[in-house]
Amino acid sequence: MKKRGSEKISKEPYRGVCDLYPEDMAIQNYIFKKMRETAESFGYEEYNASILEPSELFEAKSGEELANQQTYKFKDKGERNVSMRPEMTPTVVRMIARKKRDLLFPIRFFSIANIFRYERPQKGRLREHWQLNIDIFGIKTTDAEAEIILFAHNVMKNFGAKEEDFEIKINSRKIIKLLLNQLNIQSDENRSSLLKLIDKKGKMKTSEFEEKMKEITKDFKKVLEWLNIKEFQTFVAFLPEE
Q: What angle do CA 62, 63, 67 make, to 5 degrees?
């Protein structure tokens, strides 16, 4: 391919995204079909929104690193700050808030959205990907959490996976904060840095993770011990009695 008969234009897509030929679309459509069937069987309704949002939405809701370092941002012709969505949660929260008086709670929404993050492309991680999102609004009990876990289990089963083929991991910031209270970390900044580091653990080399952990807390060995626990009852023993 040539531009104006001289300058060559690459045939490759933009780095970190991919072309979907018909055979790829067939696979993607099958995956999305199973996701939709599962979501609808739980009573979830599908929604969508533009990939473009005001940048301040993510700056307020997504945290500094995601909003400023991993988000595609630009100014439009009206000098407005615009971002390509790096996640779906701020968008759906905005949509719910916009029509809160017209909606009947509890609300069960789902989307299969393409999102964009400016980070180094690597195996299994691109700058554009599609993500199944399910959200429940208006339920204050743990029934909502239990439903989300059951939903995740059903999605995998509907793809034909056996029980031994997958595991569901549950994250609780509340429990993590209870554990952090046992460490000698006084500043909110260091606590926040530790939580962000734990979130990145799966993307880092063990040696790099441990070195960064040492920079935050002298009790890094205790944190590593917590993170390496495999049995639930063993983990519970570290929690305070209250």
A: 70
CA 53 to centroid of chain Cα atoms: 17
Tell me the Ramachandran region of residue 67: left when phi exceeds 0, alpha when psi lies from -120 to 50, beta otherwise: alpha
Taking CA atoms, 90 is separated from 49, 95, 110, 240, in Å, by 11, 9, 14, 33
Predicted model pTM = 0.78
C-beta of residue 119 within 8 angstroms of C-beta of residue 54: no
CA distance 113 to 91: 11
CA pair distance 1, 8, nearest whole angstrom: 6
Count Cβ atoms within 10 A of the Cβ of residue 95 and give its class: 0-12 exposed, 13-18 middle, 19 or more buried.
middle
Q: Which residue has the tokens 């609300």?
A: 107
* Rama region for 79: left / alpha / beta (φ>0; ψ in -120 to 50; rest): left
**86-126 per-position pLDDT tens digit:** 999 999 999 999 999 999 999 999 999 999 999 887 777 78
